[in-house]
């Protein structure tokens, strides 16, 4: 039996030390990792760049960029098996080169390592990208799709590696639930299993690089879900679900999908528009509240343009076949293999009906309401209320502003995200245990919600 390989090599763009000797040490260690994973480094190429337009800050931290080519092991008969192996190589090199005391390792960063995609990015403004990366002006450079993002880092200090896009996404917005998302990912790592990744699973830990921005951490999680065998739209639906619980017109199959996956992963929530691609499919999804804009044009000559604003590209009105905007929680997807735009309903109906999620929920889910109640202690008498309030640190302000509205009206008190309460850890007075914990909110300002009307 014989077969023909569809893909024979992968390519990566690597940030390295400007020092030649330091680069050589990193390349030797990288080649060793590649060989241990059963692949072979074909060669390296200096990535042609022109830094004449860069500012002093960007130049001061500018890495030397090299392109590496890796030959595929003929035993890997499946293209995605090769992609997973490149994923393992990249994660191992990050752990074994960047996180070491090797001179120059602080520069080490692999922008992309794939048989499908190349990522060109850096501390550049929009017009500098093409000027800096000379490959982008080469007549031989062709692509059926491109994912481009111009933004500064809002949650972290800007750097070359924190530029967009990442391996799968570009992200406009912020993830407000980030700390909880990352903590849950760390907590679950010990229980991870994958038939596709097998023993390689331990080599890619930790999944989340906590030195990255919120966008990079989202990308880390999305990449794992795809490498573990899910389709890209499936993984996106898991991480950014629609508001489904009280959706009257949503099909039961789709509700079952979201309910089932809510047991596996919590939403990565926040005002965000996320564009994504795996090199074959490209699309975008808007957060469930629709607080970030995303608009698209489809032209009569089969060009699809989506951007955060209208008019990013100058397209003559007579060329436009149709245009629209992305709806909250909806996916816009272009499949270059099938050569068509796939509707949100088609994507989600196909994925939701791929498995009997409702049957699994009915058979295996345990409802809290069905769990026997724990034995209750005797109700405390009313005469000791004041003493117990004092023992547990309740203040007059707590009773008046927080407790009374809840007891009287059945609602939580209206408050502000800001607080000037002194930190318990700095106090020399007795403090309740829970006073030592603070909620971490987003570090950037959300777009205001403005209500207007006539009196």
Structure description:
The chain is of the alpha+beta class. It folds into 2 domains: 1-142, Ribosomal protein S6/Translation elongation factor EF1B (Alpha-Beta Plaits, 2-Layer Sandwich); 143-371, Aminohydrolase, N-terminal nucleophile (Ntn) domain (Glutamine Phosphoribosylpyrophosphate, subunit 1, domain 1). 28% of the residues lie in helices and 15% in strands. The chain is built from 12 helices and 12 strands. Helix 8 (252-262) packs across helix 9 (344-352) and helix 8 (252-262) packs across helix 10. Mean pLDDT is 88; it is low at 1-5 and 445-455.
Concise account of the structure shown:
This protein has 455 residues and is α+β, with helices and mostly antiparallel strands. It contains twelve helices and twelve strands.
Tell me the count of domains.
2
Structural class: alpha+beta
The description of the largest β-sheet is: 5 strands, antiparallel
Proper CATH architecture of the largest domain: 4-Layer Sandwich
Task: Specify the overall morphology.
Answer: globular
> What is the residue-averaged pLDDT?
88
Tell me the β content.
15-25%
Ranges where pLDDT stays below 50 over 5 or more residues in a row are 1-5, 445-455
CATH topology of the largest domain: Glutamine Phosphoribosylpyrophosphate, subunit 1, domain 1
What features would you highlight for this structure?
Glutamine Phosphoribosylpyrophosphate, subunit 1, domain 1; 455 residues; alpha+beta; 2 domains; disordered N terminus; globular; Alpha-Beta Plaits
């Amino acid at each position: 039996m014989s077969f023909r390989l569809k893909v024979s090599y992968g390519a990566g763009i690597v940030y390295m030390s400007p020092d030649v000797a330091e680069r050589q040490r990193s390349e030797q260690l990288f080649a060793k990792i590649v060989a241990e994973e059963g692949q072979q480094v074909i060669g390296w190429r200096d990535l042609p760049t022109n830094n004449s337009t860069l500012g002093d800050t960007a130049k001061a931290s500018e890495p030397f960029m090299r392109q590496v080519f890796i030959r595929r092991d003929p035993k890997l008969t499946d293209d995605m098996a090769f992609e997973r192996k490149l994923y393992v190589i990249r994660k191992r090199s990050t752990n074994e080169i960047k996180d070491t005391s090797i001179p120059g390792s602080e520069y080490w960063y692999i922008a992309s390592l794939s048989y499908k995609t190349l990522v060109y990015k850096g501390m550049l403004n929009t017009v500098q990208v093409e000027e800096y990366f000379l490959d982008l002006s080469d007549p031989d450079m062709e692509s059926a799709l491109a994912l481009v993002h111009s933004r500064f880092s809002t949650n972290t200090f800007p750097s070359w590696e924190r530029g967009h896009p990442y391996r799968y996404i570009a992200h406009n917005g912020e993830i407000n639930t980030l700390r909880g998302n990352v903590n849950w990912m760390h907590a679950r790592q010990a229980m991870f299993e994958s038939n596709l990744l097998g023993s390689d699973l331990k080599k890619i830990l930790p999944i989340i690089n906590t030195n990255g921005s919120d966008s990079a951490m989202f990308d880390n999680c999305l990449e794992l879900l795809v490498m573990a065998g899910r389709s890209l739209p499936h993984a996106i639906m898991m991480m950014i679900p629609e508001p489904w619980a009280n959706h009257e017109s949503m099909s039961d199959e789709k509700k079952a999908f979201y309910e089932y996956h809510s047991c596996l992963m919590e939403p990565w929530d926040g005002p965000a528009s996320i564009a994504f691609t795996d090199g074959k499919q490209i699309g975008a999804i808007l957060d469930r509240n629709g607080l970030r804009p995303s608009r698209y044009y489809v032209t009569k000559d089969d060009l699809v343009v989506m951007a955060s604003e209208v008019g990013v590209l100058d397209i003559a009105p007579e060329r436009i076949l149709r245009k629209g905007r992305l709806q909250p929680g909806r996916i816009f997807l272009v499949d270059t293999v099938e050569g068509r735009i796939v509707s949100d309903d088609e994507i989600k109906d196909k994925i939701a009906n791929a498995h009997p999620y409702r049957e699994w929920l009915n058979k295996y889910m345990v409802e809290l309401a069905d769990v026997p109640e724990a034995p209750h202690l005797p109700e405390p008498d009313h005469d000791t209320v004041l003493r117990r309030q004092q023992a547990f640190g309740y203040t007059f302000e707590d009773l008046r502003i927080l407790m009374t509205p809840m007891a009287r009206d059945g609602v939580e008190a209206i408050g502000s995200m800001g607080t000037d309460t002194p930190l318990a850890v700095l106090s020399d007075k007795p403090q309740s245990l829970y006073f030592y914990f603070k909620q971490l909110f987003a570090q950037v300002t959300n777009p205001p919600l403005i209500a207007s009307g006539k009196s």
